Alanine--tRNA ligase
Amino acid sequence: KKLNSAQVRRMYLDFFIQHGHTEMPSRSLVPVDDPTLLWINSGVATMKKYFDGQVVPKNPRMTSSQKSIRTNDIENVGKTARHHTMFEMLGNFSVGDYFKDDVIPWAWELLTSDEWFGFDPERLYITYYPKDDAAKKDWLKAGVKEDHLIPDQDNFWDIGQGPSGPDTEIFYDRGQEFNNLPEDDPESYPGGENERYLEIWNIVFSQFNHTPEDTYEPLPHKNIDTGMGLERVVSIFENAPTNFETDLFMPLIKQVEGFSDGKQYGKNKTDDIQFKIIADHIRSITFAINDGALPSNMGRGYVIRRLLRRSVVAGKKLGIDEPFLAKMVPTVGEIMKDYYPDVLENADYVAKVIKSEEDRFSATLNGGLSLLNQVIEEAKTTGTKQIDGQTAFKLYDTYGFPVELTEEYAADEGLTVDDKGFAAAMTEQQNRARNARDMDNGMGVQTDLWTDFKDESKYVGYTDLEVENAKVI
Ligand code: ATP
Ligand code: MG
Ligand code: MG
Ligand code: MG
């Protein structure tokens, strides 16, 4: 069966609508009334108010295709075939309504029935929590063969406190030719770190309350929340080697080819990583700005800045010297217009924001790169394995290089960055700004740093915050 991304999305939603679900809109990437989350990172993240009982939904059965951003996957982009910074999570949710014995046969029907996805059952593998006999039984009853059911201790969803429970994950076997590991590698199984067995769907049975006393009490109302990666499923339908060779990304990659000095996608690995970084990041940047976020030096804004600047450097590696990212916004809008018509409608605004940020960074990029290349050369001659914190801070402060960008660039040369030294230089700078501000009575300090840091007393890594929440599904 061949389906494009819009058809896959529609089919998933229609299946659950037929089973009594209400289709919920894809919510803003910027969380509403939720200070614990930097970005909406899953379907269920938009449904917390229903799951914790604060709000009773009109219909306890809901389905959605939710745009999600995960900063903990930034480094994976381009390196694995399956991770994006922004992706869509298809999901179906039961708030105290149906449970395992309904969702499992539905899942199997959607995946394997010719009327729906029509996947070959031989290609599907399912992991489940070893003690969860009920789930195993339900899968067997639905028609899964015993040797396609794999007990895995990791299949327990728990964020420390609150609703928790066993889960079950569905993997699609893309075939031995997709295996990036030696056949006897211990990671070469469904659930391991490999490209052969693609995790397409995660179904969580939240049935316990993890109490502050660290006990697990049965919940009075059991819930279901699930998440299926749209881009991954589309790669299966389009028989694409990775998520990138699909209708969701290819037009972007083609456009980047046009900007470059004759580089072509698919010719060599290092170039391909740059193509993928740009195609991935421009989607996140465009959607995030369209949802009201803006580039800045902290929090969400810093994530946008980091993605944008990383894309500019990726472009540079492909020989692109002119600002190009803003020109890609209409392409993102065109690709996504079926479900997100607002992106194309707001393309001018989004492009303007991107253009100004791009111009700003481009002005210092060459200076930054030559400093960076110079210290890398020095490190090579002296044999040090580390770029010192002061230099990383200068790259950040004077040339606008997010420290993660410096780290990545250095890592390609086998070097690390002195994080502690960087953080110390940052603190010192902030103290200087604060002292100046105090002396000035808060007036007259016009530096960028002051504007960007006025709400923040110290540098906080935002990644940790996200990692904590990354297991939400
Ligand atoms: P993985 O193990 O591949 O990182 P995950 O277990 O972290 O995935 P879940 O939290 O279970 O992912 O999210 C539900 C589904 O969303 C996954 O089964 C996968 O299909 C998809 N997904 C998760 N992270 C990403 C991502 N960064 N890019 C694209 N799809 C993703
Ligand atoms: Mg993950
Ligand atoms: Mg996983
Ligand atoms: Mg998972």
Remarks:
- The pocket of magnesium ion (ligand 4) is lined by residues 169, 199, 202, 473 (CB under 6 Å).
- The longest helix spans residues 347-382.
- Residues 5-241 form a domain with the BirA Bifunctional Protein; domain 2 fold (CATH 3.30.930.10).
- The chain has two domains: 5-241, 249-419+462-468.
